[in-house]
User: Fold Diaminopimelate epimerase from Spirilliplanes yamanashiensis.
Amino acid sequence: MLAFTKGHGTGNDFVVLADPDGQLDLTPGLVAALCDRRRGIGADGVLRVIRAAKHPEGAGLAGEAEWFMDYWNADGSFAEMCGNGVRVFVRYLLTHGLADGSAAGGVPVATRAGLVRAVADGDTIAVDMGTPRVYDASTATMGPLTVPGTAVDCGNPHLVCALPAAVPLESLDLHTAPAHDAAVFPAGVNVEFTTPGEPVDGADLHVRMRVHERGSGETLSCGTGALAVGAVALRDAGRATGVVAVDLPGGRLTVTVDERTAWLSGPAVLVATGTVDRAAL
Ligand SMILES: N[C@@H](CCC[C@H](N)C(=O)O)C(=O)O
Assistant:
C-alpha cells in the first residue's frame, strides 16, 4: 500500500507522495495510474517529497534546501517547474513540520529549475519564482484559428496568446493540445489563452486565462502559466513592475513583479489523505 496526500492550488490538483529517503520506485506508469481520474486517485500531477540530497537532480542544491520537489505531469512526464505544485508542496512541508515557516527568506525548495523560496500567510502561499524570461514570438493553432503569442520561460516553457476580441475565452475547445512550433518549443509547451479582465482592487492589471498544459491537458489553474501571463501583460502595458490579478477557471492567482523578482501567490490546501493499493492500479 502507498500512502498519499491530495492537495490543490486553485483547482490544480496533485497527489503528494512522501518519500524522504528516495526509497519509492516511482515510474511514469505509476504516476499516470495514480493521476487517472477514473481508475486511480485522479490529479494533474504528482509531487514527490524527497530530500534534495537523495535525488540526483536535487543533490546540487542540498546545501540550500532540505527538500526537492520531484514534480511529474499526469501522463508520467517530468516538468522543470510547477508554480501551484511548489505552493502545495510547501503547504505539505509546513503541515507536517518538515520546514520552518518563520525562517528568514522563506522556505527553500529545490526544483529541476533551481531554488525557489516560499512564504506562507494564512491560506495563501507566495513563491519567489524569479523573473520570467519573455523571449520570442510564436503561434498556437486550434483548427482554423491561429493565434499569435509570446514565448516565456518560467523554468518551464509557455506560450501566451491573447485571443482576438471576437473569440470568447469560454468558446475554446482545449480537449486537444493546440499545435505549436516545435522549432521554438522542442520540449513541448504549456499554452495560455488570455482575454482582458475588468479592473480589480489592489491590482494594476487584470487578465482572464485558460491553459492547456503539456503532459496534463486542460487544467483549472497553472501557476507558471499565470506567471507567464502576468509578465506578458506588464510588458504589453509598457510596465517593468506591477501587480497582475490572473483569473483562471479554478480561482485567482496574483503575480507581483518588482525590480528584483516575480512573486506568485494564492491559496494552497491539503484536502485528503489515504492509501492506495499499488497492485490494483
Ligand atoms: N500546473 C503547473 C505546471 C506543471 C508543469 C507543466 N505541465 C509543464 O509540463 O511544464 C503550474 O502550476 O505551474
Summary: The first helix runs from residue 28 to 35.
